[in-house]
Structure formats: C-alpha cells, structure tokens
Amino acid sequence: MLKHFKILILIGLLQACCKPELRNQYELSEKQEEAVPYISNQKISFMTNNAYEFVLNTEVEKKFIIPYHESGCFYDEYENIRATLTSTLPELTISISSTALSEWENDISLYNLELQVNSKWFLPNCQMDSYTATDFADTTINNRLYENAMVFELCWDYTNKGDTSAIYFEKVVYTKENGIELITFTNNDYYELVK
Amino acid sequence: MSWLNSIKLTAIIITCIAVSSCCIGYDDYHKLLTDEQAAWVPDSTLKSFIMENEHGIKESFVLDSFQDTIISMKNDKCDSETVFQRRSAAYISTFNNSHHFEIRLNTLNFTDLDIGLNWNQQASWDFDKNEQIPHSYTSNKYPNPTSISIVSDKTINSHSYPKVMTLKFASTDVGETGIIEADFIPLGGIVHYKLKNGVSYYRNPMP
Hints:
- The complex is a heterodimer of chains A (195) and B (207).
- By secondary structure, chain A is mainly beta.
- Chain A has helices at residues 2-17, 30-34, 103-106, and strands at 21-26, 43-48, 53-65, 74-87, 92-99, 113-117, 120-124, 137-141, 144-153, 169-175, 179-185, 190-193.
- In chain A, 13% of the residues lie in helices and 46% in strands.
- Chain A is elongated, with a radius of gyration of 21 Å.
- The mean pLDDT of chain A is 87.
- The radius of gyration of chain B is 23 Å and the shape is elongated.
- Classes of the chains: A mainly beta (195), B mainly beta (207).
C-alpha cells in the first residue's frame, strides 16, 4: 500500500515538474483572415449623422496566442489577427479579432470574430452561445442594404440602468468587404463609413 | 510625607497631565455644508445628462455614485464629538472612454471642494478661505488648474447663470484630449468644457 502511495507521489511530482511543450499550433483559415479586412496604418474616414467627418487609424497584429491555459505538460497555440481602430474625436478604440479554431471547433463557428468598442463587448446578433455558427448575410439596417454583413450588438452594458434619456452604443454593422460600416446609437445617431 | 506617598502623588499628577493633554484639540467640532455650498454637487435626481460639441457629437454621462452623509464620531475619553458632512457625485460616460466628472465636498477640517475630470485632472477649492488650494494628489500626473473662479452672471452658450465656477488649466499641463476649461453651476453640475484641441462641449439641453 505504502509502495503504491510512493509511486503515486513520484508520478505527481514528475507531472508538476514537467516543462510545458507545444502540442498543437492552429493557424487561421483563409476565411478567418479575410474576415478582418484591415492593414496597418490605414486612415479610414467615418461620418456622423451630423456630417462631421473623422478618421480612424488602424493597427493590425497577427500572432500566435495561448487563449486557454491548461495545467498539464502541453499547450496549444492559436493564431490570432487583431485590428485596432482608434480616433481621438470622438474618442473611440475599436478592436476586431479572429482567433484560429481547433479541428473540432472549425465545424461549429466559421469566423470566430470578436468585436469591442471602447472595451465593450459586442456579439453577433446577441448570440451568447459561442458554439452557434454566425455567418455573413445581406442585412437591412436603417433602410439600407448591407451585403455580406454581420450585425454585432451591445447586449449587456453595466452603465445602462434603464435611463432612456442616456445614449448608448447599439449596433455595429460589419461587412466582409469593408469591415466596420456603421455604428448606431440608441438615440438614432450613427457613425457611417465614408466610401 | 513618606517616599511611597510621594511616588503615588507624582504618578497621579503625571496621569492627570497625560489624560488632560490627550484631549487637547479634541473639542467639539460641528461643521455641515450650507445649502449654497451643497448645491455645487448636483442632487441625486440628476441621473444622467448629455454633452454635445459644435460638430453635433453627443455623449451621455450617467450617475455612477452619489453620497450625502453626515458623519458623527464620539470621543468618549475626552467627551467630545466631531460631526462633519460628505457630499459627492460622480458621472461616467456611457461610451466607456476616459471621460468622467466628479465633485466632492467635505467639511472635515475645513470646507473642501474637489473636482475630478476624466480621471486625471483635479482641482480643489477652500470654501472657508474662498480660494483655490492645491489638490491632495501628490503625483505630477494630476495637474492643478491655473485658476478657479466663482463669478456671478456668466453667459454660456447663450444661457445666463447667476453663479458659475470656472476652472482653467494650462494647455501645456494636459494631454492631447485634456480639458483646458470647465464651467460648473450650482444644482446642475458641469455645463461646458473645452478641450486642448479647441473643441467645446455644452450640455444639451442647457439646464
């Protein structure tokens, strides 16, 4: 009995001492990369509903990340592409990213896109379930047709205490071709991509 | 008197001196805000407001925290009581950026008004002396205003106000998106601010 116990402790110690090794490296699919249609140092013009034009500057980074920290001796790396768009007036920091998926996940979600505006999370059609595949589709918003678009919504906002006189972000219309096309607010204001 | 009695007497005298000296400066202290002072912090019924710039860009702020408390502390040993008031309101942008306004009043020691702008600009005013004082943040990261003034009858964005507190910061002291001028009114809070880049935001509607 004691012998078995010692062996178990030895195995445990060996496990604890192992240096984690890279097990799998998952690369972005062509589809995922295409879904973030930005390159660094672009100056993208937007116009408000009051015809004020402002510029969003882009930074794009592609690297392998370790999104899930496993306790074992192995880890997996996932390729990630992240575009960050910033402007000072209005003060906006928009982050759009896609992270590669493992083989079994690839069947479920096609693009794995994540979008944040000023660190607020927007979800495609407010689908909280990340295992639901979301795809681009033709969409009409504000009486305008957006082809191959995904509509991201701000589904939960801790500053929103039901005060209807306050203004909140509402939706982001994102197309495969141009990325962010439209940002809408709860008071019907909007910022629109200048093409 | 025996030497033992002398020691006892000395001990009693020392104890009496020690006890009485401990209570020096522990007189009763009662200081509350006057209505006029309290009005610089908007009432908690002001849940949100909108600021709009000349380009029509709007931004709303919501009440994040509010406090109006009278604090009473009893010192049993010295039989004294300290009563003072704290009143504050903090508003944050619904756009989750660095924009915020905070006004705090405190009557402990003196009647102190502190204003915080965008988490990195601070201003302090002493109502007892009616003058600007350096804020309590020691870091150079938080610049003091070059001036704070309380003026009567000021017109802002075509609206006249009987009393306005104006803060002015040196543009060299603030960052690219820093505030160089801000106007506050009693009961209404901030009504105008001007950024270093020249853009001004006004309350919409003006209170």
